[in-house]
Design goal:
Layout (H helix, E strand, L loop, with lengths): L34 H17 L9 H8 L7 E11 L3 H16 L4 E8 L4 E8 L11 H14 L4 E10 L6 H22 L6 H8 L5 E10 L4 E11 L7 H6 L7 H15 L6 E6 L1 H8 L2 H13 L7 E5 L11 H11 L2 E7 L5 H8 L3 E6 L2 H4 L6 H21 L2 E5 L4 H9 L4 E3 L7 E2 H7 L6 E2 H8 L2 H10 L2 H9 L1
Parallel strand pairs: 6-7, 7-8, 8-9, 9-10, 10-11, 11-12
Antiparallel strand pairs: 1-3, 1-4, 2-3, 5-6, 5-12, 5-13, 6-14
Length: about 500
């Protein structure tokens, strides 16, 4: 949506200017044009589309959606909604925004376009980056438009009500769904602004999701090979990372309760997949069964996720969806039918927090051979015989049950939260050879993981025993982040 008269011109940052120049003395508040005037405005805009700037003025609905959403897939999008415009005719207000948008936002790296809806009477302004925004360069559109609104009112130039909707232009939802989400959220924000004139919607959470910065961390999974008696990293579980949120729980708590958490979960999945571009090993992502059912019952969305994975240089066979323990309801399709779409691509599934009293048993029975990993809840192996013999024996039986399940399905077992050498030794005695534990490696950035993946291989069992049973060496592991760096120093 190129906004300059010359489509070949490259915008450059310019100094802040008076965004109200030439309009200070205008004080007459007029209503927007009626239908006949609006049609002539749109006809005028259409005639200019072909000769000067195809995004000039007011676009028809289909052209607006195509240029604003379809052409900017994968970028963060903003939809600003203007209602009750007084003090300017519609086209005059559109040109006012076109000429001053860089000053309003204090940024030049934007494309934008307009569409006027008669029912309801509102002007929509779509904004997207030409290249991309990340970090400190990410604009605070809601705050900028708020200041613009106050200045227009205080200087009697024009008046209007406004609302801002924003969303990552995601890879899975179609243009209609993205537009409806932006339209709905901009309307909600406008109603909020009418009562408190402040930005509250989504708070930091939507900034994190919409920001192109691909922060992510990974907790490496360690595999012990009994034939070579060595430990190696073979992948890991991917988490939210960066300075905005440390955990998924923190992010969810920052989202108002009336929002669609399934959609938020989908956006997080896309963000993490994007962050893992060309990352090696088996990558695991948390998702709730309900989000899978609600989102991917439509086969086209599963196909789009598959294409996103391929576009990031990832092998679907190296991706695993961990089904977190949450209740779910099956409507249009069953969980098994939805998961079968992904299984056909090569994507497999894990039962997360699989324990004696876990509700994940339902998922395991439902999906059958599509479950390729059982992530054992720590409670299943933490009890020691001298502490509670009954619980110890119950959990020992459960571990054997998991092994039989895994053997029948050619699946693996991962023990989570192994935090001491005695527990590690106990699990190895019972032939559980895969761990997600800070004893070996804590969370690391995806970039570090990508760079060091081939170094975190073939660590001899003797070296692991030496390090894990030495307090000073364990302090070094915690300081350096993983056992492989400490072992490499000892070998020198």
């Amino acid at each position: 949506m190129r906004n300059l008269p010359s489509p070949d011109a490259t915008p450059a940052r310019r100094p802040k200017v008076n965004l109200l120049r030439g309009l200070v003395n205008q004080k007459t508040f007029d209503m927007p044009p009626q239908r006949s005037t609006l049609q002539s405005v749109m006809d005028e805009s259409s005639s200019k589309d072909g000769s000067h700037d195809r995004y000039f003025g007011l676009m028809h609905a289909e052209a607006f959606r195509n240029s604003f959403i379809a052409a900017n897939r994968g970028k963060p999008l903003f939809l600003i909604r203007f209602e009750d415009i007084q003090g300017m005719q519609l086209l005059e207000f559109v040109n006012f925004l076109r000429n001053e948008v860089h000053s309003i936002l204090d940024i030049t790296d934007v494309e934008f376009g307009f569409h006027y809806m008669e029912h309801p009477a509102c002007l929509l302004m779509g904004i997207a980056p030409i290249r991309g925004w990340s970090g400190p360069g990410f604009p605070n559109v809601d705050s900028s438009v708020g200041r613009f609104h106050i200045e227009c009112m205080s200087r009697h130039i024009c008046s209007f009500h406004f609302g801002v909707g924003r969303s990552q232009c995601n890879f899975i939802s179609d243009e209609e769904e993205i537009f409806e989400e932006l339209f709905r959220t901009s309307e909600k924000n406008l109603r909020d602004n009418l009562t408190r004139w402040s930005w509250t919607y989504f708070n930091r959470a939507n900034t994190y999701i919409s920001d192109e910065t691909t922060d992510a961390m990974i907790q490496p999974t360690i595999y012990y090979d009994p034939r070579s008696a060595t430990y190696s990293v073979n992948g890991g579980e991917v988490f939210l990372g960066g300075g905005v949120y440390g955990t998924y729980r923190e992010l969810i708590s920052d989202i108002p309760p009336d929002q669609d958490l399934n959609r938020i979960e989908l956006l997080i999945l896309e963000k993490l997949i994007t962050a893992c571009e060309r990352a090696p090993g088996l990558l695991k992502f948390n998702i709730s069964p309900q989000s899978l059912i609600d989102t991917f019952a439509i086969r086209e969305k599963a196909d789009r996720l598959h294409q996103l994975i391929l576009s990031r240089g990832l092998n679907p066979r190296n991706l695993r969806l961990e089904l977190v323990e949450k209740p779910y309801e099956e409507s249009r399709q069953s969980l098994k039918e939805v998961c079968a779409h992904f299984f056909n691509f090569g994507i497999t599934f894990a039962a997360d927090d699989f324990g004696v009293k876990s509700q994940s048993h339902q998922v395991v029975l439902e999906l059958g051979v599509m479950i390729k990993e059982f992530k054992l809840d720590p409670i299943s192996f933490r009890f020691k015989v001298e502490e509670d013999q009954t619980k110890f024996l119950d959990n020992l039986a459960f571990i054997d049950y998991c092994k039989r399940l895994a053997d029948n399905r050619e699946a693996g077992i991962t023990a989570e939260a192994v935090e001491d050498f005695d527990t590690l030794r106990f699990l190895m005695e019972h032939q559980i050879f895969q761990y997600q534990t800070n004893l070996f490696a804590g969370k690391m950035t995806i970039s570090d993981y990508r760079a060091r993946f081939n170094e975190m291989k073939n660590l001899p069992e003797s070296a692991v025993r030496t390090i894990l049973t030495n307090r000073d060496l364990m302090d070094q592991v915690r300081a350096k982040g993983d056992i492989f760096q400490v072992a490499a120093q000892l070998a020198r």
